[in-house]
Design brief:
The protein has 383 residues and is α/β, with parallel strands linked by helices. The protein has eleven helices and 16 strands. The strands form four sheets. A seven-stranded mixed beta sheet has the order 1-16-2-3-4-5-6, with helices on both faces. Strands 9-10-11-12-15 form a five-stranded mixed beta sheet, covered by helices on one side. Strands 7-8 form a two-stranded antiparallel sheet. Pathway: Amino-acid biosynthesis; beta-alanine biosynthesis. Keywords: Hydrolase. GO terms for molecular function: beta-ureidopropionase activity.
């Protein structure tokens, strides 16, 4: 079964002759990035806690007018800890405990900015279309238990933490949102970014719970660079990635939850393409495991009802503006992907390729504005 395949990298290492391995990785990843020298303490802790730990380096050319801007960024992928039948608070608290271990591992590895997967405090129950008990996982972005828990860790470890949760807007009619909370390394909440694009594909019945977000394309200016959060399905929309770049992002996180039968051929391409097209770093994060729910549900595709909707295949990675990317994490294990990046590379690539200079925002704006008019017709010339 596909769920039993550990990773693309494991297959490559097993079946590709050593003489060809270097060239294959160069062609597959754009460059064979150097491994990051992580502390023995971090490695031992990861081994003890069964966390796959990988780290790589994205370098930039030295400059006379700017010092290097070195930042360590991390992405977390993990399985749920307790079965979906366990009490809601028990499920959430077990995930808190697991993530506390992974964030400690990140701190031991010198990570400055870290992001968890989409809706990390809960199973991805949106497939069920059941309101209860899953809506009970929703909590306040500013004052909820998860944010308070992470504020302490952010301050303790001097780390910016991006926490994608199911949000309950307590002051606005208790509406539910799919939201990333950005917590400063000081421990203060900087702000929130909501999911711009909501899927209605197969078992991804997310509009049962929340609709498109209203925060636009916010970029958060942190001590460790300007970061943005493109939640899950937004990665399929090039314009969504573009607007984070227009607003000045250095790093865009893509916390996701997606299964193999649906999206795996797209996964290695989209975040990498976005890094290239927009001259910034991207961090593609996907959960792992197969989550089974108490009641069967259908997908409106004529197939039998089922209690899970497939294997979350992990494979989290980091991509750079120069087209290079890290190998992915496992398809089956909890893991932490780390990249030490020099943010100077973003401007160097802008200078080299000229994508920002040669873009035609005026042209796009005019034509997109025309598309919105009731009398618009496609610009097709026929014989």
């Amino acid at each position: 079964m596909a769920a039993e395949v550990e990773s693309v990298e494991a297959l490559i290492d097993e079946f590709v002759p050593a003489d060809n391995l270097k060239d294959l990785k160069r062609l597959l990843y754009g460059a064979e990035l150097p491994s990051l020298n992580l502390s023995n303490e971090a490695k031992l802790f990861a081994q003890e806690k069964d966390i796959e730990l990988k780290g790589y380096i994205f370098s930039a050319a030295s400059e006379s007018t700017r010092s290097p801007k070195i930042v360590r960024i991390g992405g977390v992928q993990n399985k749920i800890v307790l079965p979906t039948t366990a009490p809601i608070l028990a499920q959430r608290d077990a995930l808190h405990k697991r993530i506390a271990d992974i964030i400690k591992c990140a701190a031991l590895s010198g990570v400055n900015v870290i992001c968890m997967q989409e809706a990390w405090t809960m199973p991805f129950a949106f497939c069920t279309r059941e309101k209860q008990p899953w809506c009970e996982f929703a909590e306040s972005a500013e004052n909820g238990a998860t944010t308070k828990f992470l504020q302490e860790l952010a301050h303790q470890y001097n780390m910016v933490i991006v926490s994608p949760i199911l949000e309950r807007e307590e002051e606005r009619w208790d509406v539910i949102q799919n939201t990333a909370v950005v917590i400063s390394n000081s421990g203060e909440v900087i702000g929130i970014s909501r999911k711009n694009h909501i899927p209605r594909v197969g078992d991804f019945n997310e509009s049962t719970y929340y609709m498109e977000g209203n925060t636009g394309h916010r970029v958060f200016d942190t001590q460790f660079g300007k970061i943005a959060v493109n939640i899950c399905y937004g990665r399929h929309h090039p314009q969504n990635w573009m607007l984070y770049g227009i607003n000045g992002a250095d790093i865009v996180f893509n916390p996701s939850a997606t299964v193999g039968a649906l999206s795996e051929p797209l996964w290695p391409i989209e975040a990498r393409n976005a890094a290239i097209a927009n001259s910034y770093f991207t961090v593609a994060i996907n959960r792992v495991g197969t989550e089974e729910f108490p009641n069967e549900f259908t997908s409106a595709d004529g197939k039998p009802a089922h209690k899970d909707f497939g294997h979350f295949y992990g494979s989290s990675y980091v991509a750079g503006p120069d087209g290079s990317r890290t190998p992915g994490l496992s398809r089956t294990r909890d893991g932490l992907i780390i990249a030490e990046v020099d943010l100077n590379l973003n401007r160097q690539i802008k200078d080299k390729w000229g994508f920002r200079m040669t873009q035609r925002l005026d042209l796009y704006a005019k034509e997109l504005n025309d598309v919105l008019k009731p009398d618009w017709k496609p610009n097709i010339i026929r014989e």
